[in-house]
């Protein structure tokens, strides 16, 4: 499915924010979620039309997010419509009292393919602080037991921040003990409630990437990164050290690029070809606004006014983001720009320009090293 997909035409993954309502108040929340639903949310009928449009775009993966999707009483009706259409759907609800065993049973009955929970610490002290709600850790662990009982695959999402960066080994051990199929590791972008002071440093990013690569060789669960595109560069570098040696790095990358295969070795498995904000990725807000991602708050259109495919394919914002030759600074000359590209969201958050260099990457491209020499 992925290798036949042209990201200029069709996304690999669509994130739909069903609602911004949520009972939690997480420190990093890009949505700045509120306790009550917004009356401007896409209706059930508008949602069905949106799903039809998504399906026609070469049927990408669809993720329901929020806020908390379970704050919408029609969430399972929406999910059932998508699944019957043939769309692969997963959901990322908040671990709140809304996540009852009955709710999880409904999710399984309608055919949701995966359930994702957030865990941002290996204990209640760290996790509950980050999630802004006492008891969140214990509730999450209890609900994970429900998922196991119902044999629903579990994905764990973790935001790396200064609050948990020193406890990643403990986190990995917990992920393994919970028998998860995927650990999705998010690297904080200072947008919404997220602050630059919550972030880890550029050097710490690099250390975490190297650690994740090493971890990937000794655990049974898959690992992927979000807003950590430079993990792909680290993964390739480590593979080249193991298999090819540094002297053949550029020649090897050039050969892969000619074959269109650079993304196939990015270590993400599910998302080759360098998925990035607006490039294989699209985010639809609760009111139908379309963004390159939920972390890049630059509006490109609204599905109430314009077809999703037209926005994704024709918006100047999306077109710029899909053209690595427009990247500025060191990202623009980096030999890894086609498979990595840096976080466009973080570039925007830190500089106000989504085409600027990834500000939390320590790598110096070979073209710049040659100039210095």
From TrEMBL:
Highest taxon of the lineage: Bacteria
Keywords for the protein's UniProt record, in alphabetical order: 4Fe-4S, Iron, Iron-sulfur, Metal-binding, S-adenosyl-L-methionine
GO molecular function annotations of the record: 4 iron, 4 sulfur cluster binding; catalytic activity; metal ion binding
Domain Radical SAM core residue range list: 8-218
InterPro entries tied to this protein: 4Fe4S-binding_SPASM_dom (IPR023885), Aldolase_TIM (IPR013785), PqqE-like (IPR017200), Radical_SAM_PqqE_MftC-like (IPR050377), rSAM (IPR007197), rSAM_sf (IPR058240)
Pfam families: Radical_SAM, SPASM
Cofactor(s), names only, from the UniProt record: [4Fe-4S] cluster
UniProt-listed PANTHER family: RADICAL SAM DOMAIN PROTEIN, TUNGSTEN-CONTAINING ALDEHYDE FERREDOXIN OXIDOREDUCTASE COFACTOR MODIFYING PROTEIN
Protein name per its UniProtKB record: Radical SAM/SPASM domain-containing protein
């Amino acid at each position: 499915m992925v290798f036949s997909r042209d990201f200029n035409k069709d996304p690999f993954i669509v994130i739909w924010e069903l609602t911004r309502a949520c009972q939690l108040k997480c420190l990093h929340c890009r949505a700045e979620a509120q306790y009550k639903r917004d009356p401007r949310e896409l209706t059930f009928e508008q949602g069905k039309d949106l799903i039809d449009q998504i399906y026609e775009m070469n049927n990408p993966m669809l993720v329901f997010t929020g806020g908390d999707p379970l704050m919408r009483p029609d969430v399972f009706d929406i999910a059932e419509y998508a699944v019957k259409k043939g769309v692969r759907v997963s959901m990322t609800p908040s671990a709140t009292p809304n996540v009852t065993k009955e709710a999880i049973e409904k999710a399984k009955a309608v055919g949701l393919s995966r359930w994702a929970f957030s865990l941002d610490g290996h204990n209640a002290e760290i996790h509950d602080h980050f999630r802004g709600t006492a008891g969140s850790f214990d509730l999450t662990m209890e609900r994970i037991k429900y998922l196991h009982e119902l044999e629903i695959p579990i994905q764990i999402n973790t935001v790396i921040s200064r609050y948990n960066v020193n406890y990643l080994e403990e986190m990995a051990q917990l992920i393994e003990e919970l028998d998860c199929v995927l650990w999705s590791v998010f690297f904080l972008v200072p947008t919404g409630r997220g602050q630059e002071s919550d972030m880890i440093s550029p050097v710490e990013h690099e250390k975490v990437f190297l650690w994740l690569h090493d971890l990937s060789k000794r655990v049974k669960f898959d690992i992927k990164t979000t807003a950590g595109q430079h993990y792909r560069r680290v993964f390739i570098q480590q593979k080249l050290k193991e298999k090819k040696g540094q002297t053949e790095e550029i020649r090897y990358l050039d050969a892969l690029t000619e074959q269109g295969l650079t993304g196939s070795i990015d270590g993400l498995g599910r998302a080759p070809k360098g998925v990035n904000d607006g490039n294989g990725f699209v985010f639809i807000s609760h009111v139908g606004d379309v963004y390159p991602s939920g972390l890049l708050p630059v509006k490109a259109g609204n599905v109430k006014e314009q077809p999703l495919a037209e926005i994704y394919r024709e918006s100047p914002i999306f077109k710029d983001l899909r053209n690595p030759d427009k990247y500025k600074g060191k990202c623009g000359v980096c030999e890894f720009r086609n498979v990595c590209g840096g976080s466009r969201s973080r570039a925007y958050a830190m500089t106000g320009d989504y085409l600027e260099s990834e500000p939390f990457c320590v790598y110096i491209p070979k073209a710049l090293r040659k100039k210095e020499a």
